[in-house]
Amino acid sequence: MVKENKRILIADDEEAIVFGLTEMLEEEGYSISSALDGKAALDLLRQEKFALLLADLEMPKYDGMQLLKKIKKEGIETQVIIITGKGTISTAVRAMREGVYDYIEKPIKPIRLKSIIPKALEHYKLRVSHKNLEQQIKHLTHFEDIIGQSQLMLEVYKIIDAVADTTANVMITGESGTGKELVAKAIHRKSSRKNEPFIAVNCSAFPENILENELFGHEKGAFTGALTEKPGCFEMAHKGTLFLDEIGEMAFETQAKILRALEEKRFRRLGGKKEIEVDVRIVAATNRNLNDALKEKKLREDLYYRLCVMEIDLPPLKERLEDIPLLIDEFVLFFNQKNNKKIKGLTQRCMSRLMRYQWPGNVRELKNAIERAVILTTSSKIDLDVIPNRIISSEEPAKMAKPSEIEGDSASMIVIPVGTTMEEVEKKVILRTLEKANQNKTKAARILGISLKTIHNKLGKFDAPKSD
Ligand SMILES: Nc1ncnc2c1ncn2[C@@H]1O[C@H](COP(=O)(O)OP(=O)(O)OP(=O)(O)O)[C@@H](O)[C@H]1O
Ligand SMILES: [Mg+2]
Fold it and tell me: What's the 84 CA to ligand 1 centre distance in angstroms?
């Protein structure tokens, strides 16, 4: 196997040059491929990795500059040295500004070529390792577009990984701004449906009849004003994922129709006779408490069971304080780029204030606060003067992992007499926590600081009744 950083592609329409260069460079230990026009060169670059491209400026199909543009556009990683004839030196100089490593004039002087190639390759190696490093760092802090490395978020990623490539419908719960839509997109992108559509519908954004029209579409003439036929989101999401956002806000009747479409995998457009078959994976989300929504009859139980094959409960930001600095770093970078700024983060005192705030609007609120701060900051670091008062006047430090619902009230207390075995203590604590968490195992696991798998194992051992 030839090492990737020894592979060179020569693109020149003069066969004599290609032949001469190939012989010379092979003798030097490089592995050479060649193309006689720009298009053939691009095809090879798409298929294989080359550390270096030696490209003539004047070639048929794509000339050197056009080839360069395509390489950049497609993000092909290679170092480029341009070969120029007499009349094209000024173009070569221009190419240097576009990121070309160097240029070499015809007739090619072997000594010069032999001296610049190793330097160009060294440069390539550095660039590649820098890129790899960047990717590794990104991998350490991101999961798809989701930022966060707290234990609670790692648990969420595990569930996404496990469920993404199955046919199971997923229900995502969590307070507003915790990233439910990001999670839905991550599930889609990690599934084998990733190249098919991801269609999102915000169920709270439409009155009942308009929502049905959005979901199922209509035939021409279905109602006054239906001048043309219109496919609905179910059809548009065929083979892909349909994200039903704010599902708890949907009318009961519409829920029944969705249930039918899911069970039968077919439906009719409004005013239509023809049954349309669809294959969609549903990911739903709500910021309501599911048990309350069921009790208050906001969510149909049958639909709930159909959708909630897997539940992902996103923790509020105040329960994962360690993610705040990561999120802030990323948002500062993002809004720096957007606003053409070079802000280098936050002052120490500003950071500690942001860590104390409860973030009722979760990540969305944090993102908005950082956007505002980046825009208003004129010095190198964001300080308290650009943070809204409601945030900096918060005195109470947010809690680390334990949600408040378990603390304080007597219903949360357990009396454990001396002499109780540890096994018995564990059982009591787990069952009582489940009770407090309305039998939601994900939530209970979070409160207890153990994984969902552990809670399942323990329950199996206690032989406790199945709850969700
Ligand atoms: N973990 C995260 N990493 C990066 N950005 C995030 C994260 N969580 C949320 N965001 C950002 O915060 C904003 C709100 O996220 P999203 O729309 O997914 O929240 P949501 O839970 O659907 O909120 P709502 O219930 O109000 O619809 C978006 O701009 C999103 O990009
Ligand atoms: Mg949302």
Answer: 51
